[in-house]
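TL;DR need structure tokens for one chain.
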Amino acid sequence: MSAKLLRLACTAAVAAQAVLAPLPAVAAPDPRRSVSRLLTDFQRLYLQAERATETYNAAAERLEHQRAVVVRLDGELAHARLVLRDSRGDAGRLAREQYQNRSDLSPYLRLLLARDPQHALDEGHVIGRLARDRAEALDRLTGSEKRRDALARAARSALDTQLTLVGRQRKARDDVRARLADVERLLASLTPEQRGEMAALERDGVADAQRRLTASGALGDGRPPSRGGDRAVRYAMEQLGKPYRWGAAGPGAYDGSGLAFRAWEQAGTPIPRTGREQWARLGKVPLDRLRPGDLIVYFPEATHVALYAGGGKVVQAPGPGERVTLAPIAGHPILGAVRPDAAPAAAPGTAGPRARGTARPPAVRPR
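>> reply
TL;DR here they are.
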């Protein structure tokens, strides 16, 4: 949410992502409405778009996992069918052998009438072994049938779940597009003067929040990065200039949490894909203990993420129509910070001095 996002109204890339059925038009702004109120409306719409993007990312991640489950179960089911075929073959072979060797005489009578009792005893042992083999084959056949049936049910259920997730992903995708279209409509309705005033107001608000955060001492004393953190920041810096695209995690484009996800993956520490999961599952660290590579999580619902680069700056994929950039840490309201390479059990229990270190949108401070 910065002045650079005001170019959305004429950004072809965003327009290409937002091909929709006609939606109700956003009302033209009231000329009497203050610029701060316009900025508030813009920030609200933008935040809704980021929430929708996180929902889409979560749905996409679950769908990818579910597809892997379906593939695994399909493979296990195919193997179970081969085992069942072999079990049926064994059972059939033993049944034929029993039929071919059948006799109306009992084993005891055959032993009494045999010319060679020892041979009859040996034959009895063979017959007993065949009987045991037949029983074991039948047990394997029964077990194979049960396993096949259980896997078939699991595979059907997994496929049903996958189809449900496909529907959710499509709905989330459509929601993102609709929210971005709302942002575009609002921007397109503004005059050049209103856009310029709104951009200046937002720049002033970010600069003021950055000064207050720095003066408070909340950013600590410049701790060095860990080896993983250094690698993550280096990777993120190499992505500067690449475009933002919602739902993207590289290598050609990124969204906020996607950039953090890919940077730490390249550093050798896999982390969750979405900002919400990153905030929920990674070890939290106070702002006054930040070191480069830590993730700065923004907004109450953890809908935006950036990598701390040191010196009060973050590397981030800002939003639609923009490119990966180095920006002040106080560009958005800070929820807290997390450290991907910290053991969760040893991580600090608080998110740091939020009251001193949280930037507030300038729109809530009318001039």
